[in-house]
Amino acid sequence: xxxxxxxxxxxxxxxxxxxxxxxxxxxxxxxxxxxxxxxxxxxxxxxxxxxxxxxxxxxxxxxxxxxxxxxxxxxxxxxxxxxxxxxxxxxxxxxxxxxxxxxxxxxxxxxxxxxxxxxxxxxxxxxxxxxxxxxxxxxxxxxxxxxxxxxxxxxxxxxxxxxxxxxxxxxxxxxxxxxxxxxxxxxxxxxxxxxxxxxxxxxxxxxxxxxxxxxxxxxxxxxxxxxxxxxxxxxxxxxxxxxxxxxxxxxxxxxxxxxxxxxxxxxxxx
Length: 270
Fold this sequence. Notes:
Structural class: mainly beta
Radius of gyration: 25 Å
Helix content: under 10%
Largest sheet: 7 strands, antiparallel
């Protein structure tokens, strides 16, 4: 399985290739810490605290002296840039990734291997979670006046017998737990509303043609281009409510949107 590090600069490093090889790394360790009150017998657990993760890595950089110096210098600059800017890089293992910082590095030559250099690093994952993105796009709703033309009468009635434009869909996700998400709603639309398993996600704003409304539950963000629409969100039902796991039933108005789930687990899947 490939292991890749992508720095906040956008530079990509293959850590399981010919030039840089990961020799020691255990990505399958994690822990929760119980918090509660001591009872006469044992403890009453109030909640579990999620620990951050630390992965000691041993990287082997191979090649000529000049080539090794160039790789190690580039790695150092990107590791330190991430820390100085407080902008994490991402460690990727197959479909899974985690946001992380490299907090330690120790470089030594390997005496018995003339063209190899060893770099011991520590990868720190503040959230303690690995993430896999699962996305699905949903198209514009069907206009019911064309879907059901026999309900569109020649003369106007007090009641509109043809329903408003609508869209419906089902989605069976792979997520075993409720997920953080990113929702991208494409204009033109006024006061867009998406209902998922009966729960409404609503923003009271006009999204113009060619504009995209973004709701990000992790970042607690509601943006349309440079417009901050945080105060335009529905405040009765939070637009940051996590998406349920398993089968989803969705309905929306006459617009298209994309929904990305951030599936989280304590270790990546093979």
